[in-house]
TrEMBL record:
Residue ranges annotated for the EGF-like domain, each copy included: 300-311
Organism for this UniProt entry: Didymodactylos carnosus
Disordered, as annotated region: 63-85
InterPro entries: EGF, EGF_Ca-bd_CS, FAM107, LE_dom
Segments traversing the membrane: 368-386, 392-408
Protein name: EGF-like domain-containing protein
Keywords: Coiled coil, Disulfide bond, Membrane, Transmembrane, Transmembrane helix
Transmembrane listed as a keyword: yes
Coiled-coil region(s): 111-149
Domain of life the protein comes from: Eukaryota
Molecular function GO labels: calcium ion binding
Boundaries of every Laminin EGF-like domain copy: 300-330
Length: 412
């Protein structure tokens, strides 16, 4: 069949050849047969020389005159046969069962196969791109619906959510989903086939879409908006392996989104927090305001015992001591025993507490209430007995001062 296709040998009726009893030479196609040959397309390049053109048998002039009337019918049949043969040739060439004999035709065939492979890869890439665009369209549709809800909903209190905290949650879910989808679609069976397909899946856009969808839930509108804002950056990181997976938080939240800072820094420019003499943040006895975020003041918020700009001192009511490891120890002071003469509570009982003291019990004048009442009555009688006005004024002032001192509840 290959010789018949490549050289288009036309078979004539053997009975007519026997009747003519003549030797028929092979010559190139006449012009009127050549026009019939041009009615169909050859699936490979045309012949490059006159010798490579198809040949046919030319009968004697007498036989040619007898067959001239039926030439049109014969050429139509031959044309249909040639079209069927060329279709067969094209199909076999496509599936790789048949190759032309000429080297230049083989190179053309190989080049066409390579073009076909490139087209298939391009179509596959286009399908993945279309799928990604559909997923992004769904995300945008969700965002639009959330915006409409927020637009027509009643005003509420401003949200106090920290963008750094939101980015941290997204990073954590992204890493979990990245590890989960490493072999989610494969397991068991043919390991060679699985390994080959897994290489294509690990860097496919299908996996990236699945990871990003798992990074936010449908109810987290802020998460979806935040993730869409840096979608192209994440895709670039995914395709080019910009950083290891363990450093995704630093790359995404600190370097790219710039909503977080590293530990021990704060503010828009990620300035350093206060360090103590032991080279610890806030001497190890407090926290830095805004540490790890792009907000805050950087001021040390000390614990209950320490104070100072870097928490290196003790609060009032404690004494400071430093051990061999340069740790600051704050010891409580007993205020009830710290005075030599009078108790800090004066008329009350003193009880020591952590960093302070308390005054408890009843003052002595409440215990001697009858004596105080008698004293007031006697003093009043003496005042009434004296007739001098200035003496009355002086005694009245003394009694008033005495009563104020004795009955005051705020004496310390």
């Amino acid at each position: 069949m290959y010789e018949q296709i490549c050289y288009d040998t036309v078979k004539w009726d053997n009975s007519k050849e026997e009747n003519n009893h003549s030797i028929i030479p092979y010559v190139p196609y006449p012009q009127f047969f050549r026009s019939e040959q041009q009615r169909y397309q050859i699936p490979y390049p045309d012949y490059s020389s006159e010798d490579e053109r198809p040949l046919m048998k030319i009968a004697s002039p007498k036989a040619h005159q007898n067959n001239h009337l039926s030439s049109s019918t014969t050429t139509n049949i031959q044309s249909n046969q040639k079209q069927e043969l060329h279709r067969e040739l094209a199909y076999r060439q496509k599936i790789g069962q048949l190759l032309p004999k000429k080297p230049e035709l083989v190179s053309v065939f190989i080049r066409r196969q390579e073009q076909q492979k490139r087209k298939e890869k391009e179509s596959e890439r286009q399908r993945h791109k279309t799928k990604l665009e559909e997923a992004l369209a769904k995300q945008r549709q969700k965002i639009d619906s959330v915006k409409l809800v927020l637009l027509f909903s009643p005003p509420s209190a401003p949200s106090s959510s920290d963008p750094c905290e939101l980015c941290d949650q997204i990073s954590e879910k992204f890493i979990q989903s990245y590890k989960k989808t490493a072999r989610s679609n494969f397991g068991g069976g043919n390991s060679d086939w699985e390994e080959k397909k897994l290489k294509d899946y690990t860097k496919s856009e299908t996996r990236l879409i699945e990871i990003m969808e798992n990074s936010c839930t449908s109810t987290e509108s802020k998460c979806t908006i935040f993730l869409e804002k840096y979608e192209e950056d994440i895709e670039n990181w995914y395709n080019n392996n910009l950083t290891p997976l363990d450093e995704f938080f630093r790359w995404f939240c600190i370097d790219t989104a710039k909503v977080c800072c590293s530990d021990g820094t704060f503010g828009k420019n990620c300035r350093s927090c206060q360090y103590g003499d032991n080279h610890l943040i806030c001497s190890g006895y407090g926290t830095c305001d805004g540490s790890g975020t792009r907000s805050g003041t950087g001021r040390c918020i000390c614990d209950d015992l320490h104070s100072g700009t870097n928490c290196s001192n003790c609060k009032p009511g404690y004494t400071k001591t430093i051990d061999n490891d340069k740790n600051i120890i704050c010891n409580d002071i007993d205020e009830c025993k710290s005075t030599w003469f009078l108790s800090p509570c004066l008329l009350y009982e003193c009880e020591n507490d952590k960093g302070t003291y308390r005054c408890t019990g009843k003052p002595f004048y409440q215990k001697l209430s009858h004596l105080v009442t008698l004293l007031v009555l006697v003093t009043t009688a003496l005042i009434l007995m004296w007739k001098q006005l200035h003496t009355l004024v002086i005694v009245t002032c003394l009694i008033t001062i005495t009563l104020v001192v004795l009955f005051s509840k705020h004496i310390l």
